[in-house]
């Protein structure tokens, strides 16, 4: 049942490489070492690396709060570090947007309107969904943290998150088959 690729390397040499599954189950096309793959939640790791790069460049501080980037943000006291560590207490957009016009409808049919990161931020300002908990109290895996971090990367860099990742990481590292999903994809 595995669908994906496994590569194990030691000292720069590949010692095991295997690909299983299909890129599109309907078309039954087989995955290969050259199949472009959407990095999905792995993007959180890349987002964290990008944020730390901006910290290293002196363009961002782990102690910066969200209101520095989003004036009058309705959830005060949340730092970049808290978001990176899933300790922000922010509500998870996967839950507070599920009953709105995006994503999966209650009857399990896809309504074909995907929410952008900007849509998530807008709903947070407008609807102010309840926090999960006060900031820095505990860990709670939350996609909203990384949506906001991607928006901050865009504000600081002046380019879209997918373009930033392409320019600063995927191209320099020759990751030719990796990309960040966009609506045009």
Description:
With 185 residues, the protein is of the alpha+beta class. The chain is 32% helix and 13% strand. The chain has helices at residues 43-56, 80-84, 93-96, 117-127, 143-157, 161-170, and strands at 4-10, 13-20, 22-24, 29-30, 37-38, 178-179. The chain has a two-stranded antiparallel sheet. Strand 1 (4-10) and strand 2 (13-20) form a beta hairpin. It is globular and about 50 Å long. The model is unreliable at 104-108 (pLDDT under 50).
User: How would you characterize the largest beta sheet?
Assistant: 2 strands, antiparallel
Count of helical regions: 6
Terminal CA distance reads 25 Å
> Spans of 5+ residues with little confidence (pLDDT < 50)?
104-108
Order of helices and strands: EEEEEHHHHHHE
Q: Note the beta-strand portion.
A: 5-15%
- Percent helix: 25-40%
CA radius of gyration is 18 Å
* Mean pLDDT score: 88
**Structural class determined from secondary elements:** alpha+beta
* Overall shape: globular
Number of strands: 6
Strand order in the sheet with the most strands: 1-2
Write the layout of secondary structure elements.
Blueprint lengths: L3 E7 L2 E8 L1 E3 L4 E2 L6 E2 L4 H14 L23 H5 L8 H4 L20 H11 L15 H15 L3 H10 L7 E2 L6
Helix pairs in contact: 1-5, 4-5
Core attributes:
globular
Short description:
The chain has helices at about 45-55, 80-85, 95, 115-125, 145-155, 160-170, and strands at about 5-10, 15-20, 20-25, 30, 35-40, 180. By secondary structure, the chain is of the alpha+beta class.
């Amino acid at each position: 049942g595995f669908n994906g690729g496994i590569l194990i390397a030691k000292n720069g040499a590949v010692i095991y490489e295997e690909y299983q599954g299909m890129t599109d189950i309907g078309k039954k096309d087989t995955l290969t070492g050259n199949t472009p793959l959407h990095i999905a939640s792995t993007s959180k790791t890349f987002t964290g690396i990008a944020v730390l790069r901006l910290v290293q460049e002196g363009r961002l501080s782990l102690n910066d709060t969200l209101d520095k980037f989003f004036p009058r943000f309705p959830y005060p006291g949340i730092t970049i570090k808290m978001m990176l560590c899933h300790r922000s207490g922010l509500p998870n957009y996967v839950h507070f947007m599920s009953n709105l016009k995006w994503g999966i409808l209650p009857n399990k049919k896809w309504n074909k309107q995907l929410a952008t990161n900007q849509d998530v931020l807008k709903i947070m300002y407008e609807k102010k969904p309840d926090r999960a908990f006060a900031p820095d109290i505990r860990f709670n895996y939350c996609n909203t943290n990384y949506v906001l971090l991607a928006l901050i990367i865009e504000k600081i860099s002046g380019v879209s998150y997918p373009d930033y990742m392409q320019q600063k990481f995927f191209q320099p590292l020759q990751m030719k088959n990796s990309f960040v999903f966009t609506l045009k994809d």
